[in-house]
Amino acid sequence: MSRRSARESDVELLGLSLLLGRHVRSLDGRRVGRVLEVTAIMAGPHPRLDRVGIGTHRVVSSVCAFGDLVDGDPSSALGDGDLVLRTSDALAEVTSDWAEGALRLNRDVLDCQVIDLAGKRVARVCEVFIERAGRDSFVVGVEVGAAGVLRRLGLRRIAALIASEVVDWDELSLTKRQARTLQLADAASAVQRLEPAQLATVLAHVPIEHAIEILHTVVPAAAAGALSAAHSSLGTRLMHALPHRSAATFVDHMHVDDAAPLLRSLPTHDRDAVLDSVRAAHAETLRGLMGNDDSAHGSLEQVTGRGRFAGVKRGHAKIPQIRARATRTKVR
Amino acid sequence: MSRRTRFAVLAAVAGPGLLAGLSDDDPAGITTYSSLGAEYGYRLLWVLLLSTIALALFHDLGARMGIVTGQGLAGLIRETYGVRRGGAALGLLVVANTGTTCAEFAGIAAGFELFGISRYVSVPLALIGVSYLVLRGTFHRVERVLLAVSAVFVTYILSGILAHPDWSAALRGTVVPSLPTSRQAVLLVTATVGTTLAPWGLSFIQSYAADKHLTVKDLRYERVDVVVGSVLTGVIGFFVVIACAATLHKDGITIRDASDAALALKPLAGSMASSLFAVGLIGAAVLAASILPLSTAYSVGEFAGRETALNDGPREAPLFYGTYATIAIISAGIVLIPGAPLIPILILTQVLNAVLLVPLLGFMYGISRNTDVMGQHAAGRVARGAYLVGIAAIVVCIAALAVLSLT
Q1: Where residue B188 sits, what CATH number does that domain have?
Q2: Closest partner residue to B374 among A112, A146, A179, by Cβ?
Q3: Which of B69, B84, B316 sits opposite A178 (nearest CB)?
Q4: What structural domains does chain A harbor?
Q5: Highest mean pLDDT, choosing among B177-181, B246-250, B390-394
Q6: I want to staple B302 with a disulfide (CB 3.0 to 4.6 A). Which of A328, B75, B244, B372 is the partner?
């Protein structure tokens, strides 16, 4: 499940926003600054927290390892007390490359835009959840929606009335976009809940490589539904770009009347490769259906059936170009 | 690239600067410029020149931020300065914009009443018209219609010429600064700066440039669009001032609002000048009444991280269109309530706009120099210096306004 209610979560999570801005004290009780930034290393499915940037007035002046910070007042339920450095030598002078190569959770994730695979803006990150596991801590998910915003604005009572939406980190991917270093692409967002016709509309509005990605993100039945509902020219392009095994999986979930025209657009060897991976009975029905009217229809003409390609016989002039483009896209 | 191609690209890019600039000449702006001319003749025209320069400077910054980041101001403030400061800015912006939209609908009502049409007819019709345009139109249709509405501002230029101004005095007043040492003069100077450079205009131009999907390759052309829009805004203000300076000031007539000015012009400059002035007022109000809810809807959507595109329908962007409809309906509704305290609402709005302008410019300045956000388009030393001078001048004006209001 891509989203879950925070109130249902059985894991004790620490919110990044509760760490940011808190005072940090040295062992002798001297305040050394506030938490301004927390970095994480992108290793494994969940980023591991690495360092903490400490300073004043938005300028980081010293850093320490995340594990070297402990709560000065463990009884403070909201975590709003000072933090204390675990050892006397935990603090180091900041260097210009202190966060190089790392994910800066305050700058790059908190309050950043979440987009779905179609590039539509769906929400902003209002909280980053951290889970402690021994001495290591990991980013496990983010919260989006109004509840987190209201809570951070101090409107806790109103926030409590609204269910939180938490997205697991492994269902997000980081993407480079415009001036921001990193943003999030919510792979399982709205597309998971779309009707076949709506999903087909999304597929029609994104580059073909994104469309293929989306088809692999949703369940096979949904992908098959979208392929059936898509305009024939889009369906054909997608079938040409799909790997054989994926195409076979989707064909398995399609009605034969929808699958036959799409398969017919493929070159014979590709069509056979797909049909070899389809359920035997389904494949036999499809072969029979295509054998009956193979000469009557030419689905390539749905792609190239206008203008100077109107007289081109089924498929063979245009298909290599389409496939080449799809191959390049996949490599990239 | 040939000259013809360059012109075609410019025509395609143009829009954000023109609309954001011209919508600043709203009824509140026309009232301020009319008072400036009626009370001080041509003497304070230099204030308009400086305001126009500030307008070009900060609208250029807003458009650049929108193009480089692909985000509106409210979203960028939240991303850069956190949810508290972003939320505070958004809250003030929504309240101030609602009040200002009230002023625009009040301007529509006053303009039509000059032609004997009741506000209970004109305001609902205007509400339906602007809502239909934004809710049903695509980005390009909305832009084309709003630009066509902007053409109505030419009536102010005609009205100014028909008033037979003293051109040499007008030129002298534009380039030779002089400030009468009176409280009223300082108030009018501050009001002129405040009405020319409005918070909603700054947020609108950034969001609109992002919604238009302009790219960094368009920056050069967008700058032309901003400068042309700002200059036209200043030119229209100039003609409003000289129309009133040549007539009302000469005869010692003072006014309360722009519709007063239109009425007062009739015996002095002829019914044509008066009618043109009134038509200009209606057009200005309709343009601003379309853009203000739009600016608010962009800001709310961007703060929440939701889709804010005119090309999407209400189903794809419910928060965006919901905000637009809510602001427009509430504002028009308040104007239609018999005995509604419009004057206190408008004064509160002016104060909020003034309060909001300085922190908003501060945020913009901070973002403009942030290379994490702006990359290679971050403001250089000269640009930063110009922004700081502009902000300092506005701070002085607002401080003067605050002191004079409290004494």
Answers
A1: 1.20.1740.10
A2: A179
A3: B69
A4: 9-104 (2.30.30.240), 106-190 (2.30.30), 194-331 (1.25.60)
A5: B390-394
A6: B75
